[in-house]
């Protein structure tokens, strides 16, 4: 349920496994795990070869590819919906729609590349997930047993 709320807030709708063939929840969980993984090459550059042996490089590449595919799907869905005019009258625009308007309109004078758009969306998902974790933790701390 929490994952559905995070997706709706950050991306505009829920993303379930069966619909797109991509397990967004598992991919984001793997991404979070990799953020907390120690990397010997970061501390001692000549030990970077250890990451190939432990499989860390392979895991990072797979998660990066999965995230890129998922975020590309999100962007394409919003672009198609906008082109077809499927946005409901009176419906508030989501962050993806606003970012696509900025990208297409060049209103800011700063070009917004596709990779930058994906990075902003990923940041939004992570920030929303972090916020939800803090709120749930604080709620549970008030429950007395």
Mean pLDDT: 75
What is the element string, with H for helices and E for strands? HHHHHHHH
What structural category do the secondary elements indicate? mainly alpha
Sheet with the most strands?
Answer: none
Q: Could you state the oligomeric state of the chains shown? A: single chain
How much strand content do the residues show?
under 5%
Radius of gyration from the alpha-carbon trace, in angstroms: 18 Å
| Count of individual domains | 1
Question: Helix count?
Answer: 8
Query: What proportion of the residues is helical, as a percent range?
Result: over 70%
Count of beta strands = 0
Apparent shape: globular
Question: Can you tell me the residue ranges where pLDDT is under 50 for at least 5 consecutive residues?
Answer: none
Q: In angstroms, what separates the terminal alpha carbons?
A: 24 Å
GO molecular function: heme binding; iron ion binding; monooxygenase activity; oxidoreductase activity, acting on paired donors, with incorporation or reduction of molecular oxygen
Keywords: Heme, Iron, Metal-binding
Family: Belongs to the cytochrome P450 family.
InterPro entries: Cyt_P450_sf (IPR036396)
Description of the molecule:
With 145 residues, the chain is mainly alpha-helical. It has helices spanning 2-11, 17-20, 24-35, 40-43, 49-54, 56-84, 95-105, 114-142. It is globular and about 50 Å long. The two termini are 24 Å apart.
